[in-house]
TrEMBL record:
Keyword Kinase set for record: no
Highest taxon of the lineage: Bacteria
Domain FAD dependent oxidoreductase residue range list: 3-390
Keywords: FAD, Flavoprotein, Oxidoreductase
A Pfam family matched in the record: DAO
Protein name: L-2-hydroxyglutarate oxidase
Cofactors named for this entry: FAD
PANTHER family registered for this protein in UniProt: L-2-HYDROXYGLUTARATE DEHYDROGENASE, MITOCHONDRIAL
Gene source species: Streptoalloteichus tenebrarius (strain ATCC 17920 / DSM 40477 / JCM 4838 / CBS 697.72 / NBRC 16177 / NCIMB 11028 / NRRL B-12390 / A12253. 1 / ISP 5477) (Streptomyces tenebrarius)
Family statement: Belongs to the L2HGDH family.
């Protein structure tokens, strides 16, 4: 039986391992450097099952998010993971956002996403406190606990006989005798192929394996608040702004989680460490890598004003509340309580552009997932099928 080593125990790595073990008849070892599964991007995820309306038609993100929306709901239901298809509103609050709302509706149609433009009165039937001139109602958006999805994947992998190792950081990779050898603190792991799903460290694993990827992972911290328990009634479901196409991220939004809490955010600031969840989390190595990469400076120049605004909002609860009040005017500064932040592993090119799609690269008996930010959790089971196909090509 062929043996594949999967590096990374977040939702993408676990989904890839499950696809290989359950559907391709492959023996699998999963190597996770932390002592728990889903410790980083997956464990700090907003819990949204995206519908797939934002992404360029025909892209990996568009195709895999739309298919993943269905497969993730099905997986959760089959494995006893709480899930709800609640829908969401994307709201235009200013006249100049109305044409962008129409463009978004057209993109949804191109991607096969059911999205209906509605007027303000109808939007308030879904969200009585919302402020808008018009909105898109996206019925297939859902919410789930991705940590619980990962636990279900771990359970199923155990039943399939997969070897699951935590505390197993990959320190070196080399090809030897037609196989791949991975050095870990517990010894050498030998496999017929390597799959790199290391998220925030995916580019480093690729370089250890002998690749020279053009893209570099730059970590962006997304900071969240949540509404106080007695103010959760202000938001019934999910409320998003119309995205500004000149900016790289969606903007702050309001999301009811599967446990009933309502999260608000995220903003987006450069993390000072690849796993930098707070301003005081600093890595000189990580900062030096960002500083040496020419794309970082080009991005900073392009979005200087936006970057300053995001940093100011990071330090000002009043500014954060004001951003949310554009969507729901009843939200006040005193309604917000700090919640856990997340760090997005975003691939960047030397010209300063952010890689817009999922990015996969191949090496000798290797498949590397080098860009898998949102909607990767939604699309994880579809990413897994794509990666497994590539693995079977190199075995």
């Amino acid at each position: 039986m062929q043996h594949v080593a999967v590096v990374g125990g977040g939702i993408v790595g676990l989904a890839v391992a499950h696809e290989l073990a359950a559907e391709r008849g492959v023996s699998v070892t999963v190597l996770e450097k932390e002592t728990a599964w889903a410790a980083h991007q997956t464990g700090h995820n907003s819990g949204v099952i995206h519908a797939g309306l934002y992404y360029k038609p025909g892209s990996h993100k568009a195709r895999m998010a739309v298919a993943g929306n269905r497969s993730m709901v099905r997986f959760a239901e089959e494995n006893g993971v709480p899930v709800e298809v609640c829908g969401k509103l994307v709201v235009a609050t200013e006249p100049d956002e109305l044409p962008r709302l129409q463009v978004l509706a057209e993109r949804a149609e191109a991607n096969g996403v059911p999205a209906k433009r509605i007027e303000a009165a109808e939007a308030r039937e879904y969200e009585p406190e919302v402020n808008c001139l018009a909105a898109l109602r996206v019925e297939t958006t859902g919410i789930v606990d991705y940590g619980a999805v990962c636990q279900a994947l771990v359970r199923r992998l155990g039943e399939l006989g997969a070897e699951l190792r935590t505390g197993a950081e990959v320190l070196g990779v080399r090809g030897r005798g037609g196989r791949v050898e991975l050095a870990t603190p517990g010894g050498i792991v030998r496999a017929d192929a390597l799959v790199n799903c290391a998220g925030l460290h995916s580019d480093r694993i690729a370089r250890l394996a002998g690749l020279r990827p053009a893209a570099r992972i730059v970590p962006f911290r997304g900071e969240y608040y949540e509404l106080r328990h007695d103010r959760r009634h202000l938001v019934r479901g999910l409320i998003y702004p119309v995205p500004d196409p000149t900016l790289p991220f969606l903007g702050v939004h309001l999301t009811r989680m599967i446990d009933g809490s309502v999260h608000a955010g995220p903003n987006a600031v450069l993390a000072l460490r690849r796993e930098g969840y707070r301003w005081r989390d600093v890595s000189l190595r990580d900062l030096a890598e960002v500083a040496r990469f020419p794309g970082s400076w080009r991005l900073a120049r392009k979005y200087a004003r936006t970057g300053v605004d995001e940093v100011l909002r990071s330090f000002s609860q009043r500014r954060f509340a004001a951003s949310l009040a554009r969507l729901v005017p009843a939200v006040r500064q005193e309604d917000l309580v700090r919640a856990e932040a997340g760090v997005r592993a975003q691939a960047m090119l030397p010209d300063g552009s952010l890689v817009d799609d999922f990015l996969f690269e191949m090496g000798p008996r290797q498949v590397h997932v080098l860009n898998a930010p949102s909607p990767a959790a939604t699309a994880s089971l579809e990413i897994a099928r794509h990666v497994a196909d590539r693995v079977m090509d190199v075995l």
